[in-house]
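For the sake of clarity, the format in which proteins appear in this thesis is described at this point. Each number in the token line that follows is a code from a learned vocabulary of backbone shapes. One such record is shown here in full, so that the layout can be seen directly:
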Amino acid sequence: MTKLEFKMLEIFKAYKKFFIFLFIISGIILFLFYNALKPQKTLPVFSPSDVSPELVDSLVEHITINHRIEDWEFTNQNNKLVSHKDYEGKIYVADFFFTTCPTICPIMKDNMVWLQDKIQQYPNVMLLSHTVIPEIDTPEVLKAYALEKGVDDTKWNLVTGDKRDIFYIARKSYLAVKTGSMDELYDMVHTENFILVDEKRRIRGFYDGTDTEEMERLLTDIEFLVKE
């Protein structure tokens, strides 16, 4: 060992605690800077003006802020009335479907079943599915469908009711249904959208209910809202 190396070693020994302290402080500072500069996850709050006009009732399409899901009351698969009061203070995922749909509905419902399993650990998270053909999807039909799919009645309501009420809640609140035939009043064409609603009845996201990657994104956003 040269004299210079010996001298350096002596200096290090003398200031060992100082160097360790400096290393720890530097690490803490770098960590704080990283967290301060790292983009923080946020979820938007959607209003009718943010959505395609074909999904929105003309009476609300001009609204840009403070959009919330209106009060509602429908009959579920157990022939019981459920309403917004049953979802008060809850995070929930809503969608629109019909039991005899041969195209996207089976995929949507399989994905909703997957989601039902994932949210079991969250008592504050629920699901809500509205039929768009209430004249066919009676509570009895919905019950049979629920049993077939393995619906958990404590987490997931499949609801039916007056077609006009479903039409308006779909287009004025959830912004998720297209108008169907102009020859039939309140005719609806549902989309593949799953709608994420927060505890304040605000829409926080739209997701393709037929896409597995979108379902993963939905679950991540639910978990974010749970912790928010």
